[in-house]
Amino acid sequence: MRSTFLARGAIATALAGLLAAGAHAGPLDSSVALDQAYIPALALTTAAQGDAGAVEKARGALQRLQVRWPALRAALLQDLSSPGPTQATAARQTLAQVDRHLATAAQAVTAANYKAAHEALEEVRIELMHARTARGMDYFVDRLTAYHEPMEVLALAGSGTPSQEMTAARRGQLEAAFVQARALWHGIEQHLPHPQDYQLNDARSAQFRRGVAEETAALGRLSQALRGSDDAALLKAAAAVKPPFARTFTAFGQAD
Questions:
Q1: Which overall architecture, per CATH, does domain 26-137 show?
Q2: How many CB atoms lie within 10 A of CB 2?
Q3: Does pTM top 0.85 for this prediction?
């Protein structure tokens, strides 16, 4: 999936421009309801890859998503289908893709392959981001999805690159990813949602606010590290952008 970063980066940039310039709120309830069930399954299939204690939680979260999916699918189809037949055809195609990704995730969980399950679930939010963006819908979680791509490049480089292997070329790649990430994050900061629009209770609203503040601070530390010459400090700062982002994103899920 990471090999597609540059292509998706261009999509992310286009998304940010579209949402900032001419998007509208659109019908959000179906997307909010989906993410309440979807985000826990996405997060827990990550956790289950390295924590045996999360395995049953991941299975339960995916099962709850599957149970709720038919009703959620019908609501999404209605919201994505207006105003006419062209949009309805595109919505049906998108949701057919989501059906396949969910089926793949379920098969992977049955096989106890939580990495494959997580990767299949990742595609769900990307498919729906494209669909909502094509409809001109400003759904805040899509901003987070767009930001996830360059953020993940930074985090993976930070956690997987020995400091002695930090070449000028790799530093340049980190700088490019940072520039894109910071631009997208600035758009996020400028378009923070109203908690009630996303059905965030007090605890999840506090988690969201804390995550945003911590992610902003992490990007500031990374910016400072990029201006310095300490490769170990740079990699540590790059890896540190992921945990607060994860807290920000998972605030939109609804734990059982």
A1: Up-down Bundle (1.20)
A2: 9
A3: yes
